[in-house]
Amino acid sequence: MIEIESITKRYGDVAVVDDVSMVIEPHTLTVIVGTSGSGKTTLLRMINRLVEPTSGTIRLDGVDNRSVPGHELRRSIGYAIQGNGLFPHRTVAQNIGTVPLLLGWDAARIKARVDELLALLQLDPAAFGPRYPHELSGGQQQRVGVARALAAEPNVLLMDEPFGALDPIIRTKAQEDLLAIQKRFGTTIILVTHDMEEAVHLGDRIAVMDAGKLIQYASPTEILARPATGFVETLVGASDRPFKLLSLGEVRDVVEPGSAEGEGIAAGATQRDALAELLWSGRTAMPVTSDDGMPIGRVTVQGLVKRAARPK
Ligand SMILES: Nc1ncnc2c1ncn2[C@@H]1O[C@H](COP(=O)(O)OP(=O)(O)OP(=O)(O)O)[C@@H](O)[C@H]1O
């Protein structure tokens, strides 16, 4: 658990993070979202003490993060940034093995971990391990950056706009990878973005910052349904809200009895995808198939429209 208590960072007279308190539950993915300059990065960096707070306390599993030297703290917390920050003169394998080496892991253990992470991120260890960062595409470099941040099996992973530089298709892929990694390792992840779409997609909880203040800290559904202020409402994009809400739910939760004509959709697809497919194909209903391909009912435009309404 991460407990942030009345944390403030001042530069001169300006509080760029202003009396922020929040509790982050273990094994969850929290997204910090807000406009440029709202203090997101500063808040994130106070967790691993790349920035020292002016006042307030941050506790990691009950331990004040000032009770260990900063460099030691940072070995135990993963950190991934936009543009990946890889060392250009080290191979991919050496980059990923950086912190394990500092921690004194033996060579065989480091190699096993490097190979495990590369495979997990769908980069062939034999092909990519020996390459240098400039021999990789931007998306591949970004994946190596994430692998490096995860190398020493940190319980906590901080990510600052990790997908900001990626094109939309690679970005979606990288987001899915991240969710899979989190499921597998149970890492507590805190991710900074200015993209509300990304926040809604990834976050168990979303923290909205504005001018150094934490304006709202809640689940995506709550943020969409009950934005705390006009600022949050604007950030959410009021006209988009019903679709964002549908993107949070799976088709399996809106299956109705009965059958329908034409191509079906998987129960695990999002409700938003189902609506898009129905509208695009000009149908009012379509069949739903279970994870093992069996027909289990149908999904209707009418059912989805009800789901897209503001939750009571
Ligand atoms: N070392 C510093 N000295 C003075 N001011 C700083 C320093 N670091 C950050 N700031 C200021 O603090 C404010 C918050 O910066 P921060 O990087 O936390 O914002 P952000 O929400 O992450 O923004 P962005 O989305 O643009 O990265 C900004 O106005 C920035 O100019």
Kindly provide the name of the CATH class of the largest domain.
Answer: Alpha Beta
Q: Look at the structure and name the CATH superfamily of the largest domain.
A: P-loop containing nucleotide triphosphate hydrolases
Return the CATH architecture of the largest domain: 3-Layer(aba) Sandwich
The share of residues in extended strands comes to 15-25%
**Class computed from helices, strands and strand pairing:** alpha/beta
Write down the overall mean pLDDT: 90
CATH fold title of the largest domain: Rossmann fold
Report the end-to-end length measured between terminal Cα atoms. 31 Å
- Specify the biggest β-sheet: 6 strands, mixed
The portion of residues assigned to helices is 25-40%
Work out the helix count: 14
Properties at a glance:
4-stranded antiparallel β-sheet; 6-stranded mixed β-sheet; 2 domains; Rossmann fold; CBS domain Like; alpha/beta; P-loop_NTPase
Description:
The chain is α/β, with parallel strands linked by helices and 312 residues long. It folds into 2 domains: 235 residues, Rossmann fold, CATH 3.40.50; 64 residues, Alpha-Beta Complex (CBS domain Like). Helices cover 38% and strands 24% of the residues. The strands form 3 sheets. A 6-stranded mixed beta sheet has the order 6-7-8-3-9-10, with helices on both faces. The chain has a 4-stranded antiparallel beta sheet with strand order 2-1-4-5, covered by helices on one side. Strand 7, helix 8 and strand 8 form a beta-alpha-beta unit. The protein is globular, with a radius of gyration of 22 Å. The structure holds adenosine-5'-triphosphate. The site of adenosine-5'-triphosphate has 11 residues, from helix 1.
